[in-house]
Amino acid sequence: MGLSYSGAGVIIAGVILNDFIKSVRSFLDIRRLFGSASSGSTITDKIPMDDMLPATKFEDISSRVNPPESCRICQDEFDGGDEVRCLRNCVHVYHKTCIDRWIQDDKMTCPLCRTPIVPDFYFFRL
C-alpha cells in the first residue's frame, strides 16, 4: 500500500523546508562572505535609521540620571559633541557610527543586552 500523507503534513513539511532554505541562503549571502554589494535588498535596507533612531548630541542626553561613560562597542568615552543613538527598547547609548556599522552587519540586537533594536511594532509598517 504505502504511506499516506495528509494535506496538513505536506504543508508543514513545506514550511519547514522553506525556512531551512531561507536560513541557508542568508548564511551563504555573497555580501556577508565578500563584503560586496549585490542586487536585492535586506530588511536593514528598508529601515530608515534616522527616522527610527534619530542621532542626537551626547550633551543633549547627558541630562539623564545615569548617562553612560563610554560606548560599549568601541570603548571610547563620550564627549559632549559626539553624535549618539539611543536605542528605544533598552535605552542603551552608542556612537552613531558604531551602532550603524553594527546594524549594517545584520546584527539586529543591542550589543549589550541583546534586546531587538527594531521594535516589533515597526515591522507592521514595512
TrEMBL record:
The keyword Zinc applies. Residues 71-114 form the RING-type domain. It comes from the Eukaryota. It holds the Pfam family zf-RING_2. GO terms for biological process: protein ubiquitination. Keywords: Metal-binding, Zinc, Zinc-finger. Coiled coil: none annotated. PROSITE patterns: ZF_RING_2. GO terms for molecular function: ubiquitin protein ligase activity; zinc ion binding. SUPFAM superfamilies: RING/U-box. PANTHER family: EMB|CAB89405.1-RELATED, RING ZINC FINGER PROTEIN-RELATED. This is Zinc finger RING-CH-type. It comes from Arabidopsis thaliana x Arabidopsis arenosa.
